[in-house]
Design a protein that fits this description.
mainly alpha; 220 residues; 8 helices; 2 strands; two-stranded antiparallel ribbon; Arp2/3 complex 21 kDa subunit ARPC3
Length: 220
């Protein structure tokens, strides 16, 4: 989905912007910006942003605001942890917003397509990391396959609720013609994320901040 400004009720704009600015303020406070001073880290981060932006630009839609595209939020979360994942998605959504001119839709798009999937991905990772055995199969299957499917389905559910409450589209129409596609996209997101993360942890584990050779590979 990519909300357009016309869909966002005018009386929602201030609350949405306040929540978004609060998230961005927390991001600015907690992100370890010194890591980007390293040229290699910066190149990896910017490269991931460009690739994810490319995925977002490959989209299809049925009506204004009802677009479908890959998210990549779980990959970014596993690679950079939540704060830099949120920063990357802020840059991506900001670039798309600047191109489209739909500035009033930025906070809703950011909260739905960035904060929602990143928060869910990180919450699941923390639970898996703390309660399940440290094993490569568990890391890949749960964090990189199961989680991204849930993340994109969560985006579908939240966006459906948003469109319904904003009275942009009838709930019945969304339930029949919009939400079911997220169940199908869950498989695509899971497969792509699982494949990408598997390749990285095998060939470039240093690119994945949440992965540790000592914990997940050695002695297993």
């Amino acid at each position: 989905m990519n909300l357009i400004s016309a869909i966002v009720p005018s009386n929602w704009l201030i609350p949405l912007w306040l929540v978004t600015l609060l998230v961005l303020a927390q991001l600015a406070r907690h992100a370890r910006w010194d890591l980007l001073a390293n040229r290699q880290n910066l190149n990896i981060f910017l490269g991931a942003c460009v690739v994810t932006l490319g995925l977002w630009l490959i989209k299809t839609g049925i009506k204004p605001g009802l677009n479908f595209h890959m998210l990549g939020a779980t990959v970014l979360t596993l690679m950079f942890r939540p704060w830099f994942a949120l920063f990357a998605l802020a840059l991506i959504i900001g670039a798309i917003t600047a191109q489209s001119g739909e500035f009033n839709a930025f906070p809703a798009n950011y909260l739905i397509m960035a904060v929602t999937p990143v928060s869910l991905s990180w919450a699941i990772f923390r639970q898996v990391d703390g309660k399940l055995p440290n094993h490569l199969f568990i890391y890949i299957f749960v964090n990189a396959f199961f989680t991204p499917a849930l993340a994109i389905i969560a985006v579908g559910l939240v966006s459906t609720a948003f469109f319904t409450l904003a009275e942009a589209y009838p709930f019945g129409y969304l339930l029949e013609e919009y939400l079911p596609f997220y169940l199908l996209m869950g498989w695509a997101e899971a497969f792509a994320t699982g494949m990408i993360v598997t390749l990285m942890v095998v060939y470039k584990p240093e690119w994945v901040a949440t992965f540790d050779d000592q914990r997940y590979l050695y002695g297993k």
